[in-house]
């Protein structure tokens, strides 16, 4: 059967840029790259392989299924599924594939114990709650956790994790300090019994900007993909050298002259103030562009920015290319990234996110999931 694609738009993933970002984040022995949610839309297997090629020793995935896929692709790194086991099958697959499941409550401990093969130790990671009110053991739970684990030598606690709520907000530093202190206290009590447990607290922001959150292992996600968690803050310089890994292109389908006073696209939210040249581009909300960006985003054509005009459609959008008279059908338009002309700036996921009052993570996940991907 021939492959069926519903759009000619394309996500371009720059794996060498990913590898350079990884190298910028420090020694690979101290890193657990986070590749959950299909590597933030960049593709689980290509991203994992490319990081393995430059020395990654561990991976944090979301589901056990993602971890199993990495094993089936031949990857031998330590793999921590951050969601732990969600059903009975997950627990058995985690054990069968020697994943390091994340245990966040008493029931997880019991499930992990139950799925262990008696002849084989299962390495596990413990999740501690220090200020997200999400998943994990609290300080009060630790004595019972220790008692449970001491009685089950086939469960080997390899790692202790917690997650920072606002490390990317320098003005909230006191909260991060408090989380770090709570984490340290929990780790201290666990490591009396299990001195070899490695500690992991930092996300990208912690790793880049707050050395006291690094411990043995940091878990960078967004920074790998080029997002600076401190963009727009006093700590902006900490992530300034990162390179975006994803860019998104779509072809120009036609270029037409439109007379002054003509409305463009659905709902008539844009009317040409003068005679204009309008390019029709094959991308829309079905390919990951939020429709609320209508009339408020730029696209890059021939390395230059032009404004998008009118409602973004399902698979089409229009741009005012009056300033670029040489634009032709078949030209590549770049919605994110792409080659820039001298003195011009590419459109970034961050810029789109700001416009939508969200974060670049959401833009990347959506663009990556909703467009075909190509790797270079
Ligand atoms: C997603 C995630 C990370 C990575 O966070 P970034 O802000 O992308 O660096 C780290 N740890 C956990 C538990 C996560 O869920």
UniProtKB/TrEMBL annotation:
Gene3D superfamilies: Alanine racemase (3.20.20.10), Lyase, Ornithine Decarboxylase, Chain A, domain 1 (2.40.37.10). One of its GO terms (molecular function) is alanine racemase activity. GO terms for cellular component: cytosol. Its EC number is 5.1.1.1. It catalyses: L-alanine = D-alanine. The modification N6-(pyridoxal phosphate)lysine is found at residue 36. One of its GO terms (biological process) is D-alanine biosynthetic process. Pathway: Amino-acid biosynthesis; D-alanine biosynthesis; D-alanine from L-alanine: step 1/1. The active site is at residues 36, 266. Its cofactor is pyridoxal 5'-phosphate. The keyword Isomerase applies. Belongs to the alanine racemase family. Catalyzes the interconversion of L-alanine and D-alanine. May also act on other amino acids. PANTHER family: ALANINE RACEMASE (PTHR30511), ALANINE RACEMASE, CATABOLIC-RELATED (PTHR30511:SF0). This is Alanine racemase. It comes from Candidatus Desulfovibrio trichonymphae. The lineage of its organism: Bacteria, Pseudomonadati, Thermodesulfobacteriota, Desulfovibrionia, Desulfovibrionales.
């Amino acid at each position: 059967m021939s492959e069926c694609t519903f759009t000619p738009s394309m996500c371009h993933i720059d794996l060498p840029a990913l590898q350079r970002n990884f190298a910028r984040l420090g020694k690979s022995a101290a890193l657990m790259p986070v590749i959950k949610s299909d590597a933030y839309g960049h593709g689980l297997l290509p991203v994992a392989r490319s990081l393995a090629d430059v020395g990654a020793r561990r991976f944090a995935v979301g589901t056990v299924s993602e971890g199993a896929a990495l094993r089936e692709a031949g990857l031998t790194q330590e793999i921590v599924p951050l969601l732990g086991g969600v059903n009975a099958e997950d627990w058995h697959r985690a054990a069968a594939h020697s994943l390091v499941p994340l245990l966040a409550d008493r029931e997880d401990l019991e499930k992990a114990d139950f799925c262990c093969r008696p002849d084989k130790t299962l390495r596990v990671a413990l999740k501690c709650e220090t200020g997200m009110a999400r998943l994990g053991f609290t300080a009060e739970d630790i004595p019972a956790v220790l008692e449970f684990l001491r009685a089950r030598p086939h469960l080997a606690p390899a790692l202790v994790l917690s997650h920072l709520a606002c490390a990317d907000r320098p003005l909230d530093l006191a909260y991060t300090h408090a989380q770090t202190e709570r984490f340290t206290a929990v780790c201290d009590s666990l490591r009396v019994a299990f001195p070899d447990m490695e500690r992991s607290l930092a996300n990208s922001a912690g790793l880049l900007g707050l050395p006291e959150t690094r411990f043995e292992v940091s878990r960078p996600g967004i920074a790998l993909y080029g997002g600076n968690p401190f963009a727009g803050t006093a700590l902006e310089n900490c992530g300034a050298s990162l390179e975006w890994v994803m860019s998104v292109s779509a072809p120009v389908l036609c270029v037409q002259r439109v007379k002054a006073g003509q409305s463009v696209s659905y709902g008539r939210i844009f009317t040409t103030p003068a005679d204009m040249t309008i390019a029709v581009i094959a991308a829309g909300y079905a390919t990951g562009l939020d429709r609320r960006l209508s009339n408020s985003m730029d696209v890059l054509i021939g390395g230059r920015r032009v404004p998008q005009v009118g409602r973004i459609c399902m698979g089409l959008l229009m741009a005012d290319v009056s300033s670029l008279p040489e634009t032709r059908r078949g030209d590549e338009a770049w919605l994110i990234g792409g080659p820039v002309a001298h003195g011009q700036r590419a459109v970034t996921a961050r810029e789109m996110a700001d416009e939508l009052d969200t974060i670049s993570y959401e833009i990347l996940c959506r663009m990556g999931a909703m467009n075909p991907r190509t790797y270079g």
